What does this fold into?
Amino acid sequence: MNEKNLILICALFVHAAKMDENYADKEKLIILKALSEISNKNENDLKIVLTEAEKKENQSNQILEFT
It folds into this structure.
């Protein structure tokens, strides 16, 4: 799986985790574990993917607020 697709999938995980408006470290760990199971990236690379996915998810929410 390429990194772009992994970031997009992770952004969906982040969005789902934020549905209850309580996005906590516990949920981040669950997302990182799921990513490790579907990719061959190491922990540090997955943390970068998660950070990029959080940014992308925030951008998508900003777009929705203006429509």
About this structure: The mean pLDDT is 91.
